Amino acid sequence: MTVNRASARYEGFGKEGKGSITTKSGVLDKQPYGFGTRFEGQPGTNPEELIAAAHAACFTMALSFGLARAGYSGDSLETSAAVTLEQQDGGFTITKSALTLTGKVPGIAADEFAKIAEEAEKNCPVSKLLDCEITLEHSLEA
């Protein structure tokens, strides 16, 4: 079992408030976030961006291990994730995480690649955590 930690601090309230996020590893160290970074495109991060990064990374690693178990040694996998935040019922809800994958896997058939990718999507820990629609588009490069 592993336990990873991060913390958030927010000073002020509402739109005028400003926050920062710090991770134990130090990758994020007082990284700014707030209303402006979440909704107005200001520099900094936001929770949905971090969820998208976590989902893309977790899925891609799960797929890498699935391909290795199936006997493939690879070239590369690249995944992007687009996390959608929508206003619903007087609040906000993450409604979707759309994964887009491109893989270079020598010797694999497209249908086998799709099957292994779909299993990785279902079984990656971040996919299991998310309570929203998850889609997966995939393609193989020659």
UniProtKB/TrEMBL annotation:
GO terms, biological process: response to oxidative stress
Pfam families membership: OsmC
PANTHER family per UniProt: OSMOTICALLY INDUCIBLE FAMILY PROTEIN
InterPro entries attached to this UniProt entry: KH_dom-like_a/b, OsmC/Ohr_fam, OsmC/Ohrsf, OsmC_Ohr_Peroxiredoxin, Peroxiredoxin_OsmC
Protein name as it appears in the record: Osmotically inducible protein OsmC
An example molecular function term from Gene Ontology annotations: peroxidase activity
